[in-house]
Specification:
Blueprint lengths: L5 H27 L3 E2 L5 E2 L11 E6 L5 E6 L4 H10 L3 E9 L11 E10 L3 H13 L6 E3 L2 E3 L6 E4 H9 L10 H8 L9 H13 L9 E4 L11 E2 L2 E5 L1 E6 L2 E8 L4 H19 L7 H10 L3 E7 H9 L14
Parallel strand pairs: 1-5, 9-10
Antiparallel strand pairs: 2-4, 3-4, 5-6, 6-15, 7-8, 10-13, 11-12, 13-14, 14-15
Helix pairs in contact: 1-9, 2-8, 4-6, 5-6, 7-8
């Protein structure tokens, strides 16, 4: 039975009505803060910069018969930073985004990303934004399975190194570049060919994530510099980047950066990530030279974040699956 059928739609309708109310509340908050809502193209030269994601490619047929490959973006980040470079100081967007080969209770190939950027702001300001936006859900508790989180509570700020020490008993920086040390410290087996990044993500998934954002939200910050391709290094500690992720009920809701503005460093990081993507998966995405040109022109000091809006609606409504908060899932 299809999802538009009255019986199936009626079951989801309370979640969908809550979705509409929350989206309206968020739009009102951004307007009060002096943000402008933008719409950037979904079709892009490059879908993003993520090593481990799969994208959707399509052919653009020009009137003269020429064909160009374009990608459905995995995030509007590159396009929104171009607008920052062009002079828009505060901007936000509810963007339809696309990631291939994904599907679970928390994943869908097409989903809604809420992204916003502030010129002249530190990434700690975005942390404050997150606390204020969570309170706009209007519920007493966010819920996922048996876990609950008070959206009005002040978020805990926890560094990645602190999280590894607290929840996995690992001195993270003593293991950098040595996956066998990380595996041994965490008491986990290595698989053949595992890199340090592979072990990092496995420890995060198996030991740490489910303990974040329980009772109150968690802001997990200061990621190792090698895990923040679009973030700048933290002043005073080049080992870590100005990157944080927002967690509630053990679910990652958002990923934020103090944005990298140096075009030479950015190009080098993008190329390194695509080299790694090719090594692991045999494919590489193009580099968006227009994005790098925007950085050359001058991206202001800024900070920004991408928040999974569907996931936030899920936690606010107690929905069991992401498809329960989508008007019509992809079929």
């Amino acid at each position: 039975m299809t999802e538009w059928h009255p019986d199936r739609l009626a079951r989801r309708l309370p979640h969908l009505q809550a979705r509409a109310r929350l989206q309206a509340a968020l739009r009102g908050w951004f307007a009060d803060e002096g943000f402008v809502e933008v719409e950037t193209p979904i079709l892009q030269v490059a879908p993003g910069a993520e090593v481990h994601l799969s994208g959707f490619a399509t052919n653009w047929q020009l009137p003269d018969g020429e064909e160009r490959v374009r990608w459905l973006h995995s995030s509007p980040e590159f396009a929104m930073k171009k607008l920052l470079a062009g002079g828009v100081p505060r901007l936000f967007q509810f963007a339809k985004t696309f990631r291939n080969a994904e599907g679970s209770a928390l994943h869908h190939p097409e989903f809604t990303m809420l992204e916003w950027y502030r010129a002249g702001a530190a990434y700690e300001t975005i942390m404050d934004d997150c606390a204020r936006l969570l309170a706009l859900t209007g519920v007493d508790a966010l819920r996922w399975g048996e876990l609950a989180c008070d959206p009005r509570a002040e978020p805990e700020r926890l560094t990645v190194a602190e999280a590894f020490a607290r929840h996995a008993g690992v001195d993270l920086f003593a293991t950098i570049g040595h996956p066998e040390r990380l595996a041994a410290a965490a008491g986990m087996a290595m698989h053949e060919g595992d890199s340090w990044d592979d072990m990092f993500f496995r420890v995060m998934f198996e030991r740490i994530e489910r303990r974040l954002g329980v009772g109150r939200p968690t802001i997990l910050c200061e990621y190792p510099i090698g895990m923040a391709a679009l973030a700048r290094a933290k002043p005073g500690d080049p080992r870590v980047a100005e990157r944080f992720e927002l967690y509630a009920c053990g679910v990652e809701l958002a990923n934020a950066f103090g944005e990298l503005t140096d075009p030479r460093v950015q190009r080098a990081r993008l190329l390194a990530d695509m080299d790694e993507k090719e090594r692991l998966y045999g494919v590489r995405w193009p580099i968006d030279d227009d994005f790098l040109a925007a950085l050359e022109h001058g991206l202001p000091d800024c900070a920004g974040i991408a928040l999974g809006f569907d996931r936030l609606v899920m936690l606010a409504t107690g929905a069991a699956r992401i498809e329960d908060v989508l008007w019509l899932p992809v079929r």
